[in-house]
Specification:
- The structure is a homodimer.
- With about 300 residues, the first copy, chain A, is of the alpha/beta class.
- Chain A has a single domain, classed as UDP-N-acetylmuramoyl-L-alanine:D-glutamate ligase.
- Helices cover about 35% and strands about 25% of the residues of chain A.
- In chain A, the strands form two sheets. Chain A has a nine-stranded mixed β-sheet with strand order 5-4-1-8-9-10-11-12-13, with helices on both faces.
- In chain A, a hairpin with a 2-residue loop joins strand 12 and strand 13.
- In chain A, helix 6 packs across helix 7, helix 8 packs antiparallel against helix 9 and helix 9 packs across helix 11.
- The radius of gyration of chain A is 18 Å and the shape is globular.
- At the A-B interface, helix 7, strand 13 and helix 9 of A face helix 7, strand 13 and helix 9 of B.
């Protein structure tokens, strides 16, 4: 019996330019990338806000991927829009603009049918809103949290409060250092575990990911792609693949989380191979499984 | 029966400042770090040049580590000296000065007893000199090559010539991109393999290493240390651990090279935990083996 996932985050249009081309009005937003990646494993209940310019075909596409959009509020105004340009070194980018639009006043509403969703992903939004969402849910089995430097610097007390109430924190190396004040990885992880956090996943982009838990560290490399076309949404796709796989697991423990981070990096690799969400659409479990096995082969003696 | 390794490279004094302290006149140089790391596996024949200020105790210490210094020329003048300061983020450093001194006119001399050494490590020196060394040796079984951006940019034709004559190239991500013109890792590796190179090892510092060979890619994470005190020589210690282990292998093939890169990252981890070569001195195979097994555990499901 698969477990449904509740995902809260942004719904956006992206205007993106990379060395491989340009896309305007591309579907984006953390909740959308996350949900599409996770949809290959289980059903996703999406919570977010879009403007009334958000296309009906996009919502239809989400439905076709088993994504429930009862929690997708359509507000008067324009959808969140992000513009960015990637460098020749595709790991570098400049943000050209961030128009929050209807996302500026986002206050996540949890439809009654969502309240018992067993697995929760609190995407990268203001920690106060993440706490609100948690308060509206009935004891979920597993809660994962994403955040960013902005919240570490501006709303640390609320962020620490959310952290103390979740099972898993997804973070990158520099965020870990900022959050804990420890330059050393092991020290940073120790500080967070001492706060009561059971699982920490360090996202390292092209260098893979690390899971830290009671059973120590687990490393996976990133799946190496022939051509990274557009990295937008890779981190959210990573989280979607990881949490999505947990929806298939009867028990969520260290062992399932190790496999989950591998699925995360596999979904991240599919995401970057095409613009916007396109790399996540023409996928199936066979293709995902093949990359999972290839990646495991790359660490075998 | 262990195989001896011939190592050519620099012998230096380092004046180093890191967030954890300061050392003046510390032993350094690629040949010294390499040899001390490799000495835990087999005998090393060192080829390099020092000035007549190089201390007798340093040479005695090398002998105590089974390092043959017949090939260490003592020239009139001062030993190569490098001064550097590491940032709070220990992966960043500024070179304060590079006094080549006697190293400026280094022309490697191969003692007759070294000519049949089966395994060769051509440390990071001018490719023309690396070619000279190769010309003086009697068909070694395995040759590994290190290089740097300087030679890629200034002596590319000679560098390409050496590359075509060795078995293994040790390089980092940015050097691979500069050398091949390919931003993508897989493309860069393909270009080098098409030149006839059998093995390529990508050093990624704290992110570990990749071996590329006919049997595909093999990834190992770096061994995570509690405190990186001084990264000077980590790359050379990595190479020393890797090539040193090959000295223990009856057959040098993909399988032995996979294990070798793990030993490389283990020796690199011991190097960074103390200043200068100190982290490589109070070591034994038991300590090295323990980290090897811990590292393997960190990729196991």
């Amino acid at each position: 019996m698969k477990k449904t996932i509740l995902a809260v985050g942004s719904v956006a249009f992206d205007d993106v330019e990379t060395p491989f081309g340009k896309r305007q009005n591309a579907l984006g937003g953390s909740a959308v990338f996350f949900s599409l990646a996770a949809s290959h494993f289980t059903i996703v209940n999406l919570v977010g806000v879009a403007g009334n310019d958000y296309p009906a075909e996009a919502i239809k596409m989400l439905h076709q991927h088993r994504i429930d959009t009862t929690g997708l509020e359509i507000a008067d105004g324009l959808t969140f829009r992000w513009g960015g340009r990637y460098h020749q070194d595709i790991n570098q980018r400049d943000t050209l603009y961030t128009h929050l639009n209807v996302f500026a006043d986002f206050s996540p509403k949890i439809p009654p049918v969502y309240r018992q969703t067993p697995i929760v992903f609190l995407g990268n939004i203001q920690p106060g809103l993440q706490l609100d969402v948690l308060g509206k849910l009935q004891r979920p089995e597993f809660v994962a949290l994403d955040t960013m430097n902005l919240w570490i610097n501006t709303t640390r007390p609320e962020l620490m409060k959310v952290i103390s109430r979740v099972d898993l924190l997804v973070i990158n190396d520099s965020e870990l250092a900022e959050l804990t004040g420890a330059v050393n990885l092991l020290k940073g992880l120790q500080i967070l575990h001492e706060l009561g956090l059971k699982y920490i996943v360090i996202k390292r982009g092209e260098y893979g990911a690390i899971l830290s838990s009671a059973s120590g560290l687990f490393y996976t490399p990133a799946f190496p792609v022939e051509q990274a076309v557009d990295p937008t949404g890779a981190g959210d796709s990573f989280a979607g693949g990881m949490i999505g796989y947990l929806g298939e697991c009867e028990h969520i423990d260290c062992d399932s989380l190790k496999k989950a981070v591998i699925y995360g990096t596999v979904l991240g690799s599919f995401c970057v191979e095409d613009f916007s969400v396109d790399g996540l659409l023409n996928l199936n479990r066979r293709k995902i499984g093949a990359r999972y096995r290839q990646l495991r082969q790359m660490v075998k003696l």
